[in-house]
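Team,

Forwarding the record for the chain on the shared tracking sheet. I've put the sequence and predicted structure together so nobody has to dig through attachments.
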Amino acid sequence: MPNLHYILDTHMDNDFKTYLKSLIKRYINIGDHIDTEDAAERIKASIAFRGPNVWILAFAIVLASVGLNVNSTAVIIGAMLVSPLMGPIIGTGLALGTNDVDLLKSAFHNLLVMVIISLLASTVYFILSPLALANPTELEARTSPTIYDVLIALFGGLAGILENSRKERGTVLSGVAIATALMPPLCTAGYGLAHGNMHYFVGALYLFVINSVFIALATYFMVIYLKFKPVAGIAPELAEKRRKIITGILIVVLIPSLWSAFNLVRENNFERNARAFIEENRMVGPHTYVYDYKVKGHHVNIDITGEPLPDSLKTVYLEKAAKAKLKAKYITLTEHSFGMSQEQMNTIVGRIYARTDEQIARNAATIDSLQVQIRQLHEQLEMLLEPVPVQEDSL
């Protein structure tokens, strides 16, 4: 006689698995929300570079260039939203996924024209602009792309094509435009051309290539997954050739970004170690102390003042640094003796005060924030502990 408990457990397991599968399918199923034919028509319409798109591109170039020039994040975000560059890039992925050679040629041609116009216009703007920024953080932020930018472009592209394919579109495309940032890198490259700065030009153009390639790749994958209607069949030899070309492009684009990400992580670790070490070892000698320091890349310059520091104490200090994972070859100790001019002394004292004021301001902000939290918690506690009125029985 079969084991009754075994039969019950087996049926219960099967029922639960079936229920779990149906539950998951109900949540992740996208088939009922997708209209591939309408999406394909919308994407094809967005590729065209004529009429309104020409003017919109011009406005986006000016917005992005001005935003970068005045270091305004809000203006740069506006340029991302206005820019029509996303259309030909998504169109390229659609053309590859549906084997539409004519669409591929049109999308690539329009994208190339848009890129050239953007580079030329932004270069002219930065040549004519009289404004020079002492700390161009928005420009610098687009000159060292990493693997993280690859992930942003890939998942942004996946979200973009999925949103394009929905029957009822929302605001996802706006978020994708902001996240992937196509126009600002092009204008940063224009800045590099205008000022002869190849680091800015190459880095920013590389970021644009990363965004373009992986948005198109994400579109290509989703077009195949969502089963967009192909224009024509493709021969096996041509399909294999296409796979090799795509793989080669991905490798060429990925390798520099991986190296850049490795350097970014290493520089971040070095800066964290350097700051922690210096804060804990302000006194270099009995009467010599660190009054300022600057971390740049894999190097730290430490400014010290007080009595002249003998080589033996320098060695001891560098040995301590080595224990904190800071090699001596990456550290420069710059001594400033008491025999300096009044102007030099004023500069040093001013830098000490500046750092002290900055620390005091940070501490004050932290204290204010904690006081607000304590007050809020106190109010909530009073509400919780407020006695409940007792109603006396009426006689």
